[in-house]
Design goal:
Blueprint (H helix, E strand, L loop, with lengths): L34 H5 L4 H18 L1 H19 L4 H31 L5 H36 L2
Helix pairs in contact: 3-4, 4-5
Length: 159
């Protein structure tokens, strides 16, 4: 019959040795600070330099980022031509920044997935598709906001 641990003699109760982790992931109590975490102590100017390099990398390597930047330039030129009001400028600039930032996040996620997956992995493809879908949704919303603002501004200019 089953005996509770208290009923067993002490010679029979053996503590189980801790199991070796099967993956390189350690509990937070054993984790070493990552190189990224150490970067937080860098001077503020260095942080801005790293951010600038990231934007330039995205500009050099991401075709979609360049396309979105060109569309943003056209939106700014059209906004100047239509003499947008202050709130309209704020909305247009906000949309531009959000789309460009989303594209940068998408590029970063794609590079991270490429680093961690060697060969085809359906889950990696799904992660990339989800990020691209988020950029598409944000871009579509920005186009709708832009159309609403530009059409209203053009109507104001009509005699």
């Amino acid at each position: 019959m089953f005996q509770s641990p208290q009923a067993r003699p002490s010679s029979q109760v053996q503590p189980t040795p801790p199991e070796e982790p099967s993956s390189p992931i350690r509990p937070l109590s054993q984790a070493q600070p990552s190189p990224v975490a150490r970067q937080s102590t860098q001077p503020l100017a260095s942080a801005f330099i790293c951010a600038y390099r990231g934007v330039m990398l995205c500009l050099r390597t991401s075709r979609n980022f360049r396309i979105q930047l060109a569309v943003a330039a056209l939106a700014l030129i059209l906004g100047a031509f239509l003499a947008l009001e202050r709130w309209e400028w704020c909305a247009i600039i906000f949309c531009i920044v959000m789309v460009l930032a989303a594209e940068a996040f998408n590029s970063a996620l794609e590079r991270t997935v490429d680093l961690t997956c060697h060969g085809y992995d359906e889950r990696a493809g799904a992660a990339k598709d989800l990020a691209a879908g988020a950029v598409l949704l944000l871009s579509a919303g920005a186009v709708l906001i832009g159309l609403a603002i530009f059409i209203a501004a053009a109507v104001r200019l009509l005699p």
